[in-house]
Amino acid sequence: MSSVLFWFRDDLRLHDQPALQAALASGATHLLPVVCRPAPDEATPWGFARVGAHRRAFTAAALRGLQGQMLTLGNPLLVCQAPPTTALPPLAQAVGATTVVCEDIAAPYEQAEVAALRAAGLQVRTVWHSSLLPPSLMPWSVDQLPGVFTTFRQKVESAGITPAAPLPAPTQLLPPPDVSASVLQAMGAGQGAAAIRQPAPPQCSDARSSFPYGTPTCDGSEAAALAHLAQYLARKLPHGYKATRNGLTGLHYSSKFSPWLATGALSPRQIYADLKTFESDHGANDGTYWLWFELLWRDYFRLLHLQYGAALYRARGLSELPPAPHNPRGFDRWCRGETGEPLVDAAMRELAATGYLSNRLRQVAASYLLYDLHSDWRSGAAWFESQLVDYDVYSNQANWLYIAGRGTDPRGGRRFNPTKQAQDHDADGSYRRMWGTA
Ligand SMILES: Cc1cc2nc3c(=O)[nH]c(=O)nc-3n(C[C@H](O)[C@H](O)[C@H](O)COP(=O)(O)OP(=O)(O)OC[C@H]3O[C@@H](n4cnc5c(N)ncnc54)[C@H](O)[C@@H]3O)c2cc1C
After folding, report:
1. Measured between alpha carbons, how far is residue 189 from residues 91, 114, 123, 278, 409 in Å?
2. In ligand 1, which atom is closest to the CA atom of 358?
3. Is 397 in the pocket of ligand 1 (CB under 6 A)?
4. Is 223 part of any domain?
5. Across residues 158-185, what is the average pLDDT?
């Protein structure tokens, strides 16, 4: 008997799961599927929880869904209340495994986790599968990524590079190895629903939420993710996407794919495949094209991480600008939605109350912190990391860098004038009234 550990990270799904398929094909006879939950009190250097209540609740729902699927396949998910570096080496030893297979995540915190497992003597095989287009398909080497998104997109399109078809979910897993109860107890690990240790939804009960994640339609599970994608297409919403995507309230002005993409409950290649079928059945237009366009932004920020790695996390980013000073009082008012700028305050109240914020208001709020409150962009990125239900390490870091003018964009930073943004996007003031700032 030989065992392999499969460590679920930001890929909590069974459909289109190349990393899991690699573990199944590894030659092992037994598979131990594991997930590690961060401690609720793990703090950022800025003094608040790294994973706030919204994201914890949404991820817990994803885990409940995954646990149900794994039980059906006869191999329950082991949920560890410990960081991977604490949990995985002794678990591997207990089941006689030397190899861990997991998703490749090209960000410093996540890479340090893998490095620590390797230092503990485990072989870790990482599989890249979070982008639409694999880096290996790009017509340039990793360090030759175009510095401007438009050039990147045009090169991808002119080379005719398209995503591979998504893989079907496995219908069978390898059997689980025996793990003694005493080992599980020592690891703070469990295999039942109770092991997820999170109150069942509804957690987000705010009726104003644009993504009410505690409701069945916005549940975190893979089944809900696929159902959301199906209904989005059945309602023919892609056709209007380009015209509505700058909306501020409601479920349908934008796709709301991001929360499920962030946990991995939904694969981008599944979205792409279904979008292409939709175009064949109902026609392509600028709305369907723009969804591809936005998903390419998501890929671009992933590739940027492969190229620059930890340099993206420096105070100066990729620029030669001096580090921005931090403004603790301004930052605190910004987080609480009490800056006195009505549109920004409304946005920050929405974020704290619901864990979701439109793209437009993410830009306006980020710009205000950087250019009006003159605070360190990394504090804002950390707050978004803590609050966003759809936190994605690549998209969050790179969007903040972009607005701060510390990424690759030669045009410098992006300042948004909140008064003009309010006129353009909340002309009747209804959004600001909804959040009590007008
Ligand atoms: C400061 C800031 C921080 C952000 N942090 C995150 C984050 O942590 N996680 C996250 O997923 N997105 C982040 N974004 C990008 C964007 O705001 C969200 O992807 C989008 O609002 C999610 O809603 P949606 O799925 O309805 O998007 P849609 O408008 O429907 O777009 C479809 C998909 O395209 C991708 N996408 C769209 N815009 C962007 C973008 N600017 N950058 C990268 N991908 C994009 C997302 O995967 C999204 O789900 C951030 C943007 C800013 C300005």
Report:
1. 10, 20, 22, 43, 45
2. 21
3. no
4. yes
5. 93
